[in-house]
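Shipment paperwork, digital attachment
Item: protein structure file
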Amino acid sequence: MKNDLRFKSKAVTLVLMLVLVLTLPWPAAAKKVLEFDLNFKSPALAGINEKGFYIYDWDTLEIYFFSRETLQSPFKFGSKGEGPAEFKEIYGVYICRDYVLVSSEGKIVYFSPEGKYLKEIRNDFATIRYITIGDNFVCQKYKGQDFDLVVVKILDKNLQVKNDEVETYQVTMPNNILASNNKKNLWMVNNYFDYAVDADKLYIANTQKGFYIGVYDSEGKKLYEINRDYKKLPITVKDKENYMKLWRDAVGKEHFEAALTKYNILYPEYYPAYDSFLVANGKIHVIIYPEKDKKHELLVLDRQGNLVNKSYVPYNEDYNNYYFIFNGSYYYIEENEQTEMWELHEIKLY
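Attachment content:
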């Protein structure tokens, strides 16, 4: 009898463990879909459509299109400069059905999906990252005496203001404010603020308000907001050591030590509610800060903020290397140090 009970107990435990395993998010399998070199120094994924992938180089500001069918680059467009089809900087690339829109310093440049230059519209250089929404544009502008405010605006097709302050973000302890010891305050982990457009709805992420996402129509009228409960993740001593090591490795010992004489290195007590977000396919995708195992969890939410799915994904916190979601797949770029080639990988989320 005791043996039977012991056997049943083990069986129940195994079943419970199996249920737990099946319900936990597993790291999804990544598939390499593209390999490229082309002397890229710092590639970023600009966007994806049914025909292929748009990738640009932060150094040369050239935008390459890679065909899904041939896995080759039949054309490229844009370059560094001040003439037509040239940019001083790239603040954002927005891939639409009928055109590619590039936000640059002082102008917005339109290209056909095949890279043909169409037109440009001059703008205020302080207003950056234009995205079309309906017949309007959404953009952001830095304001305030020390440019410590970020304001999201809605503009009409002629770049005239329709809604001046859809949402405002207060930059936390901006670097240009001097501390009492005459050093500048440098926060190593800041709150997250960004916006995205999907199906003529504007989504604004602002972790100053917690796990918050505001949803607006194309005129900038608030429709509703998403507020989710979340687990506060403390920033540990080891986390701080890792941040400092990454910084030192990136800039070198000499520059690193020079920076320490100029800045007070500061950290909040807790990480923000999430690290980044992206809206696509009628779903909201949110990257969460990693816990001890250093894996980033991606939450898939519906338009109302309800959890649909979740998975672990590779995520590069370097702002140069964006991830992208298209048709339910997660795409990211990484360097293969053995082959010295750049690779574009795909993970199927749903």
